[in-house]
Design goal:
The chain is mainly alpha-helical. It has a single domain, classed as Up-down Bundle (Four Helix Bundle (Hemerythrin (Met), subunit A)), CATH 1.20.120.520. About 90% of the residues lie in helices and about 0% in strands.
């Protein structure tokens, strides 16, 4: 049995590594590898958002009796999704400057977002879910593992 606080911070780091791999390929002008690396990064970000929005947040909201901080996290997911779309367009156009601009904004947003989740939301989820927290990490890990091809 694992907790939210065991699984999702590790996946944040996984996404950070994928981001760096894609960024490195873009900076080298290696567009074939950049596109593949970016698509893997984007797929893992989507998997992460889905794990939170489809599994964790509804369970937390049901146990807490309302949305609390999850509304803001969903809003930030939308913002990051828009930046991911801009990065995909830049990658397709082989526009390193546009990619770097959107990527820099995304990186800053991801760092702030992850800090809030790791230091506030995830521990709160584990507390609020009580006994249900014992299996939450397993559910999240299963979805993330299934999506990590």
């Amino acid at each position: 049995m694992t907790y939210t606080t065991d699984v999702l911070p590790a996946h944040h780091r996984h996404c950070d590594e994928l981001f760096a791999t894609a960024e490195d390929a873009v900076q080298r002008g290696d567009w074939a590898n950049a596109k593949a690396a970016f698509e893997r990064f984007r797929a893992q970000m989507k998997a992460h958002f889905d794990a939170e929005e489809d599994i964790l947040f509804p369970a937390f909201e049901a146990a807490a009796g309302g949305a609390g901080p999850t509304g803001m996290m969903r809003y930030e997911h939308e913002q990051m999704g828009g930046l991911l779309s801009q990065m995909a367009e830049a990658c397709a156009a082989r526009d390193a400057d546009a990619y770097a601009g959107a990527g820099e904004t995304l990186l800053m947003l991801m760092q702030q977002h992850n800090m809030k989740e790791e230091n506030i939301l995830y521990p709160m989820c584990d507390r609020v879910l009580g006994e249900g927290a014992h299996s939450m990490g397993d559910k999240l890990a299963a979805l993330l593992e299934e999506r990590d091809g």
